[in-house]
Amino acid sequence: MAEFLAAAGPFLRDDRVRNTVLLTVTETMRENPALHRSGPARPAGLAAASARLPLFGWWTPAANEAGKAAPVSGAFLHTPPFPVLLSAVPADAAASLATETLAGRPLGGVNAYPEAAEAFAAAWRQATGGRVDEHMRNRLYRLAELTWPDPRPDGTPRLAGERDAALLTRWFGAFAREVNDFAQNADHAAAVRERLSYQGFTVWEAGEAGEAGGGPVSLAGVTRQVAGMARVGPVYTPPEARGHGYGSAVTAAASERLRTAGAEEVLLFTDLANPVSNSIYQRIGYRPVEDRVVLSFGEP
Q1: What is the pLDDT of residues 211-220, one digit of tens each?
Q2: Domain range for residue 46?
Q3: ω into residue 33 within 30 of 0, thus cis?
Q4: Whole-prediction pTM value?
Q5: Do 33 and 52 share a domain, yes or no?
Q6: Phi and psi of 91, rounded to 5°?
Q7: Residues 260-294 as b or e (16 or more Cβ within 10 Å = b)
Q8: Are residues 79 and 194 in the same domain?
Q9: What are 289-299's pLDDT values in tens digits?
Q10: What is the pLDDT of residues 128-167, one digit of tens each?
């Protein structure tokens, strides 16, 4: 990872908003290397085991006529079982990544800008004969002026602690199933412990007289801050507590906490198929930046 950050770090930080996921995932792995080292319990061999480990890479255009090396202009990260995460690169570079750099590596999909994602998927499909499906279209938002929901729902926000770990783990799993996450069977308890290690959860706790009956009713996670940027997510309210504005309020609380902690850019992603969340986040001050697509790969 050190070599990757030395080579691609300046490129990623130069556009920290568009490269938010690459930056936050690598920062998490730098702080907690064991988090993404899970693989098959009994790998078939060294090659099978290594194929389950994270893989980093960067892309540079060809040298110019004078032979001067070009700067890094793209990067990717693959942490199985998640899709390949790809920055902005030309379509031909994305196709080459799929069929050359990652040849033989089991891939669950690709997360990229539409043109690059489609080129990557087309090359992979031609090489493997596999099936490509659209998994999700995401929209990236950045916080402008934070506006709290008016009226606020009953209750107050607070930082989550160890006493909340079991509840947060259940909610993490429920969220993963609801959004059809690639890592539905992952160790959600480990992910929760990682977030709790840096106070990465805000929960909204309804008052005792609240309609939900008191106690935690919604959560908003946040990433580690890196390069003056952090991202809110996931945001989850269990079905029985929805419709009261808790999700909007806990998102506003987590966003405000990031701003207070010094984050210059506060970001979040939404599923474009969910018009409710897209409208809610815009009402509290988030503005759209750009869209990405997640394609999933499968057997023919």
Answers
A1: 445 799 999 9
A2: 2-139
A3: no
A4: 0.90
A5: yes
A6: -60, -40
A7: eeebebbbbbbeeeeeebbebbeebbbeeeeebbb
A8: no
A9: 999 999 999 99
A10: 999 999 999 999 999 999 999 999 999 999 999 999 999 9
